[in-house]
């Protein structure tokens, strides 16, 4: 009898669930639920409490709605009995954190804190803790903290401790009331199993935890702020459970919420990018996976620990057991193109797209595909949402160079695509220059699946073949695979994720091969990109930060005015 596993992928704007046949990896049914509250970057749900610049929040109720709506939907679509579902796994954006009270209730879901911004989920792209990140990096460097080098020399404002420190600095009452501060992915698992289980992936990549050394010392946290001396014991946990393990079993309450059977195996939570690696069948070192969406995360397996400048981290067993898992990323990819179409495209283009029966992205892509490499005369930096790797600086901003009165929207659109490809090449070259091989490149996500022009540009810029995930829901498939591992072989699943990857991980037959003529021109353009990258990103010209500082000051001045 066929057995099934469920994977739930929590993204930036929505959650998606896939029902997968164990043994083949065949996706039987998929369901998507848009978050009711979306991403809150201007106001809280009350519509009155205004958020400051660089904030990005979510509501944890949306995560439960995803389970309530999508899990029963995939069972109904597939006409599969819950008795045949052996496991469930989830993955999440990271670092996405929330404070909970002693009963496991998120503080934002309590009446006394629902109007307080710091009580909500801080999404991965919440960059308002940059001041804390800067100070953390400064003190860590002064003290010669060894951990800093494992993260490319800088800890990002997106990560756990800068965000926790921001709460402590700006809302000490929230910090005091929080019994724990959790990754959202671990909170959802606690809602499924009734127990908080912290996963090794987010702990290693986002909370400076090391398999052998644990967290940084109390002395380090005290040097940051005396109030943080015991932050690990008071707000986190020293009990970290490895990915690929079983977190527990579905409670009666969670079974009623999801429509699954009580006792169904639940996998330890994971990160959306990392969980996708086995879903494309990667089980060896030297293979880089790009998970491409609103942002892009780059995951690479290595055989030894190396210091790679500007990387998001290297974690032993962080992706697959037996390997060093390296992570890098770009903060702005899909968001890049969405910003452009919403703010910079004339009505005439929108009308032409409608007449052609395509959306504006497809229309611009078709127009951009007719351009030769270099024909636009444009060059862009892909920092519209800061730079994650290799500069680790959320205060950097976008740049478009070469525009004239003759520049057309499709030329800018193509330049923005090329900019993201250059950013990936910068990451690949940094890996290689640090002694970490990159021999093959894979891509997953909606962009990789749908945008042939973009993937060809990436192949040309990297001058490498690019293989594409066979699944349109790669992270969800990976989570389902981990769910099958949690169930175990005796229940129809697998003993290891490597075994699952060999049977269920797949790529498409189509491979993007670099075109020699294009690659040669892109080499020249990348050389110019690299100069701009260093000039604006490494301190020679801090104009981007100056502009951002003046913008913030102006906003504060206006906010503080008294109108008579």
Short description:
By secondary structure, the chain is an alpha/beta fold. Helices cover 40% and strands 18% of the residues.
Structure overview:
By secondary structure, the protein is α/β, with parallel strands linked by helices. Helices cover 40% and strands 18% of the residues. The chain contains 21 helices and 22 strands. Helix 13 (347-356) packs across helix 14 (360-368) and helix 18 (474-487) packs across helix 19. The longest helix is centred in the C-terminal third of the chain and has 25 residues, at 409-433.
What are the SSEs and their pairings?
Layout: E1 4-10, E2 14-21, E3 27-34, E4 57-58, H1 60-78, E5 85-92, E6 97-100, E7 121-122, H2 130-143, H3 147-150, H4 160-170, H5 172-177, E8 180-183, H6 184-193, E9 198-199, H7 200-206, H8 218-224, H9 231-235, E10 240-241, E11 246-249, H10 252-258, E12 265-267, E13 270-271, H11 272-275, E14 287-292, E15 296-302, E16 313-316, E17 324-330, H12 334-343, H13 347-356, H14 360-368, E18 379-381, E19 399-401, H15 409-433, E20 440-444, H16 446-450, H17 452-462, E21 466-469, H18 474-487, H19 497-504, E22 507-512, H20 516-537, H21 543-559
Parallel strand pairs: 1-5, 5-12, 5-13, 9-10, 14-20, 20-21
Antiparallel strand pairs: 1-2, 2-3, 4-7, 6-8, 11-12, 14-15, 15-17, 16-17, 18-19, 21-22
Based on CA atoms alone, the radius of gyration comes out at 23 Å
Question: What structural class should be given to the helix and strand makeup?
Answer: alpha/beta
**E-strand count:** 22
| Large-scale geometry | globular
Q: What average pLDDT do the residues reach?
A: 95
- Percent of sequence in beta strands: 15-25%
Low-confidence stretches: none
What is the tally of helical segments?
21
The residue fraction in helices comes out at 25-40%
């Amino acid at each position: 009898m066929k057995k099934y596993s469920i994977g739930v992928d929590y993204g930036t704007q929505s959650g998606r669930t896939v029902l997968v046949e164990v043994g083949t990896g065949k996706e039987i049914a998929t369901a998507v639920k848009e978050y009711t509250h979306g991403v809150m970057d201007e106001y809280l749900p009350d519509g009155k409490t205004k958020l400051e610049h660089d904030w990005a929040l979510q509501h944890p109720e949306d995560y439960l709605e995803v389970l309530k709506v999508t899990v029963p939907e995939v069972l109904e679509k597939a006409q599969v009995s819950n008795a045949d579902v052996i496991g469930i796994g989830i993955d999440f954006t990271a670092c996405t954190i929330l404070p909970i009270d002693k009963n496991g209730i998120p503080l934002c879901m309590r009446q006394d804190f629902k109007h307080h911004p710091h009580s909500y989920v801080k999404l991965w792209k919440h960059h308002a803790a940059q001041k804390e990140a800067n100070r953390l990096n400064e003190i860590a460097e002064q003290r010669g903290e060894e951990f800093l080098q494992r993260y490319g020399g800088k800890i990002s404002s997106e990560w756990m401790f800068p965000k926790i420190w921001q709460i402590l600095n700006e809302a000490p009452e929230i910090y005091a009331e929080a019994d724990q501060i959790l990754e959202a992915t671990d909170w959802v698992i606690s809602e499924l199993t009734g127990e908080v289980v912290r996963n090794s992936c987010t702990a290693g990549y986002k909370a400076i935890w090391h398999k052998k050394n644990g967290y940084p010392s109390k002395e380090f946290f005290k040097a940051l702020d005396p109030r943080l001396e015991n932050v690990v014991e008071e707000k986190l946990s020293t009990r970290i459970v490895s990915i690929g393990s079983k977190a527990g079993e579905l409670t009666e309450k969670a079974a009623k919420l999801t429509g699954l059977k009580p006792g169904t195996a639940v996998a330890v939570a994971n990160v959306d990018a990392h969980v996708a690696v086995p879903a494309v069948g990667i089980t060896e070192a030297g293979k880089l996976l790009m998970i491409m969406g609103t942002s892009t995360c780059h995951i690479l397996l290595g055989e030894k620990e190396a210091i790679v400048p500007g990387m998001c981290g290297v974690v032993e067993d962080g992706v697959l057991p037996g390997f060093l898992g390296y992570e890098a990323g770009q903060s702005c990819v899909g968001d890049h193109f969405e910003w452009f179409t919403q703010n910079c495209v004339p009505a005439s283009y929108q009308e032409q797209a409608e007449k052609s029966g395509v959306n504006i992205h497809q229309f611009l892509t078709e127009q951009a595909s007719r351009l030769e490499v270099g024909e636009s005369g444009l060059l862009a930096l892909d920092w519209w949402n800061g730079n994650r790797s290799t500069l680790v600086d959320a205060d950097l901003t976008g740049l478009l160079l070469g525009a004239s009165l003759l520049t057309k929207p499709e030329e800018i659109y193509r330049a923005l695509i090329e900019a993201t490809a250059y950013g990936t090449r910068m990451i690949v070259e940094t890996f290689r220059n640090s002694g970490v091989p990159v021999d093959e490149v894979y891509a997953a996500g909606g962009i990789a699946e749908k945008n042939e022009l973009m993937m060809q540009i990436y192949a040309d810029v990297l001058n490498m073949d690019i293989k594409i995930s066979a699944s349109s829901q790669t992270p969800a498939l990976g989570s389902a695979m981990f769910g099958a591992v949690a169930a175990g072989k005796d229940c129809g699943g697998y003993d290891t994720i490597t075994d699952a990857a060999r049977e269920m991980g797949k790529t498409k037959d189509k491979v993007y091969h670099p075109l020699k003529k294009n690659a040669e021109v892109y080499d020249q353009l990348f050389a110019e990109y690299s100069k701009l990258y260093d000039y604006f990103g490494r301190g020679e010209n801090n104009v981007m930060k100056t502009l951002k500082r003046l913008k913030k000051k102006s906003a504060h001045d206006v906010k503080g005015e008294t109108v008579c």
